[in-house]
Design goal:
Chain A is of the alpha/beta class. Chain A has helices spanning 122-131, 144-147, 172-179, 181-194, 209-219, 239-247, 268-279, 310-316, 357-360, 373-377, 384-392, 396-401, 412-416, 423-444; strands spanning 22-24, 30-34, 44-45, 52-53, 58-61, 70-71, 76-85, 91-99, 158-162, 200-205, 225-230, 263-267, 286-292, 300-305, 324-329, 336-337, 351-356. Chain B folds into two domains: 35-90, 3-methyladenine DNA Glycosylase II, Chain A, domain 3, CATH 1.10.15; 100-268, Alpha-Beta Plaits (2-Layer Sandwich). In chain B, a hairpin with a 4-residue loop joins strand 2 (157-160) and strand 3. Classes of the chains: A alpha/beta, B alpha+beta.
Chain lengths: 445, 291
């Protein structure tokens, strides 16, 4: 079975909610929409206090090309435009809407019928995706339309769909593939049409045999789409790892991007959002969120409106267990510890994980024993122990020379380290600082 | 015997030739260096802290000699005494400079600012700052990991375990600014030491709205602007819900300290206040009536 060639680890899968069908979560009392839910410029609010909005009303405009508009997920009244503590742990500008009823914009097709025929041109498809505020649903939140507009000189050869879901615990994509199979496949054909290619691969890890079976069967009706079962290995969901696993091509070091090797990678969640945006005229305002944890009563997958506080999801899944040590937005490997359960669900919130005290606490740091496990685990072929030490000593020039910018922050090094060294903490700092130095240098030129 | 003679002669010849080559080279490729640079460098403290803005003490010495004036040049470590000696060597006039000191502008101790989360990552402020807003509700205040302490070459900063905040020893502090650069939250500021070492400053850098700040910290600046109104010298400005006292304009009257409802303005090295007289009470009453 295929997989990527360099490094990788295999954390315990813990897919507790894999067998749980997607449930629709009730409306929140108040929905909060942070204006920066994506990579790039924050969106600009186009509503003001006291405005009435419907489900699907645009409440914020894209703040540039690399940006995305934001739509209301609820109907009601804009109560204020203030700040909210988001997943980053800092206060960011946000729109607050008090929910009244559930009135949708008339333009949205609310039927569940499958629509297959699309007469739009590639440019029109991209424009619709851009207008609907679709971003990468895997967690990075990169605006989708930007990936669909290849830079001059680069040409797409195939679309690769990420159904890997290599993060332990998370099952949102898995359930989506089982329950919205045809919609995803139509979404993939739309993406293929948008970038003018005839071939698409859907990579799915072999720990989801039901999804592989279901997708393979249905994909036969869609020419050019091939399902590729992959060996279970973390971080296969990383863009560069997935490209290597599926089409055996390696993306060179930054500033090269996947399109330079002819690949456009999109998540299954994104493919579904593209389907809804183009065929159903429905902008991105709800998503599947996995709520999980070993001590949680009822780990589940919820279809959640954006802006819902995480506390409501936790309540619906049986309430916060008493032994909760950390609340994590996303999965355990790349997710982020949150400061409060009131953080709203955003476009990139794939999961809410409640770790118990024992799991959550870091083990005592021991000296490096030079075992080089981190080197063999690194999927980018870097030397994490070296990068961490250099960052700790603030040797930025050498950190840059050792290709810190290639780090995808997957945490495999730290996961595999027998001395529990906090390597990623240091490497992230190095990456941030070197990134700043490079930007300053480019600005000077 | 013959062998020894050959050895002595040949080595002697090599030595002579080398001596001639070295002599010629030293004359031909000699670089003239102002001897005063060395003499100035000798009186500098050799801390190489970079606080003067030049790369190390020799860099500063060179800059002093070349500039021809000591205007705007100060060795923060050596202070006025060293600058006077430098001036004497160069035959220039020593420019009087105000002594400065590092000031920590956060008073959010454990008691004033309740902890809401627990940070268990690498004990470094820079990393904690990049990770999230911090253990308390205040995303601007001190993180307490002590990057400033490790940046200080003079042992002038220490963490107070009771408050969880750094404290500057004004006598040991040379105002080199290393801690200012090390602090990712820009809490530490270099301010003039002031007359009799008396200083008044806003001990807060929180730019959140008043209600948010008040919730997070008992002594945070809520941006109410009362101090701006009460200041007779227009030394206080209010930007982004945060007051700032300009040390150049402040006359140390301490009216703002009394006025601040949060106790965010701190006055150090003042004698204890006399018990309140009748006059100021009447004044405030009149003010209220006029409003």
């Amino acid at each position: 079975m295929k997989t990527f060639r360099i490094g990788g680890v295999h954390p315990a899968e813990n897919k507790l909610s894999a067998g749980k069908a997607i449930q629709t979560l009730g409306l929140p009392k108040q929905a909060v929409f942070p204006l920066s839910q994506h990579i790039g410029a924050p969106a600009i609010a186009v509503v003001k206090r006291g405005d009435m909005v419907k489900v699907g009303t645009k409440i914020a405009e894209a703040g540039g090309f690399v940006s995305a508009p934001i739509y209301s997920s609820v109907s009601g009244k804009v109560s204020k435009i203030d700040t909210v503590v988001d997943a980053s742990g800092y206060r960011k500008p946000a729109i607050y809407i008090d929910v009244e009823g559930d009135e949708w914009e008339d333009s949205i097709d609310r039927t569940t019928d499958l629509v297959r025929e699309c007469s739009l041109s590639p440019e029109e498809i991209v424009a619709k995706i851009k207008e609907a505020g679709v971003v990468g649903m895997g967690g990075a939140c990169f605006p989708t339309h930007v990936k669909l507009c290849p830079p001059p000189g680069a040409k797409a050869e195939c679309v690769i769909i990420n159904g890997v879901e290599c993060e332990p615990y998370l099952t949102a994509d898995h359930r989506l593939m089982l329950e919205k199979t045809e919609e995803i496949l139509v979404g993939v054909t739309l993406l293929m049409k948008a970038v003018k290619v005839t071939k698409a691969y859907i990579g799915i890890e072999s720990n989801k045999p039901d999804a592989i079976k279901c997708m393979t069967e249905k994909a036969q009706a869609y020419p050019g789409i091939e399902v590729v079962p992959l060996k279970v290995k973390y971080p296969q969901g990383g863009e560069k790892q997935l490209i290597d696993a599926v089409i055996r091509r390696q993306v060179p070091a930054p500033p090269a991007i996947p399109i330079n090797v002819g690949a456009v990678v999109q998540n299954v969640g994104t493919a579904f959002a593209v389907y809804e945006a183009v065929m159903k005229n429905k902008p991105l305002f709800e998503r599947i969120v996995t709520v999980t944890g070993k001590s949680l009563k009822n780990p589940s997958n919820f279809l959640t409106r954006m802006g819902t506080p995480m506390s409501q999801l936790i309540e619906a899944a049986g309430g916060m267990p008493e032994d909760t040590g950390k609340l994590i937005g996303g999965g355990p490997m790349m997710g982020k510890a949150l400061v409060s359960a009131e953080v709203p669900i955003c476009k990139g919130s794939s999961g809410v994980l409640l770790m118990n005290d024992k799991e959550a606490s870091r083990a005592e740091v021991q000296p490096c024993i030079r075992c080089a496990k981190c080197v063999s685990a690194c999927p980018m072929g870097l030397e994490p122990f070296l990068l961490a030490t250099l960052s700790a000593h603030r040797e930025w020039e050498r950190v840059e020379k050792e290709d810190v910018m290639s780090c995808i922050e997957c945490g495999s090094c730290q996961f595999t380290c027998p001395s529990h060294r906090p390597m990623l903490d240091y490497i992230r700092q190095g990456k941030g600082t070197v990134g700043g130095i490079i930007r300053a240098r480019n600005a000077k030129k | 015997m013959n062998l020894i003679l050959v050895a002595v002669l040949s080595l002697g010849a090599i030595g002579l030739i080398s001596a001639v080559v070295l002599f010629v080279a030293s004359k031909k490729f000699a670089v003239y260096e102002d001897p005063r640079i060395g003499r100035v460098a000798e009186v500098l403290p050799q801390a190489n802290c970079g606080g003067c803005g030049y790369p190390g003490c020799s860099g500063f010495a060179e800059a002093c000699v070349k500039a021809g004036s000591l205007d705007g040049k100060l060795c923060p470590v050596g202070g006025q005494a060293v600058m006077t000696r430098v001036a004497a060597i160069l035959g220039l006039e020593a420019v009087a400079t105000e002594p400065k000191v590092a000031v920590v502008r956060c008073n959010g101790s454990c008691e004033h600012r309740p902890r809401m989360t627990r940070y268990d990552g690498v004990p470094s402020c820079a990393i904690a700052h990049a990770t999230y807003g911090g253990e308390t509700g205040c995303t601007f205040g001190c993180l307490g990991c002590g990057d400033c302490v490790s940046a200080c070459q003079f042992g002038a900063i220490r963490m107070n375990p009771e408050t969880g905040l750094p404290e500057v020893d004004a006598n040991a502090c040379t105002a080199c600014g290393a801690c200012v650069k090390a602090c990712p939250r820009h809490i530490i500021e270099i301010r003039p030491k002031g007359k009799n070492e008396r200083r008044v400053y806003v001990s807060c850098v929180n730019k959140d709205k008043g209600a948010v700040t008040r919730k997070a910290c008992e002594v945070g600046c809520i941006g109410c602007g009362k101090c701006v109104k009460v200041c007779p010298f227009e030394a206080i400005t209010l930007t982004d819900n945060l007051a700032y006292i300009d040390p150049a304009k402040c006359k140390l009257c301490r009216k703002c300290e009394q006025e601040c409802p949060q106790g965010a303005i701190i006055a150090v090295n003042f004698p204890p206040r006399k018990p309140k007289a009748e006059v100021p009470v009447e004044e405030t009453k009149m003010e209220v009536e006029s409003k």
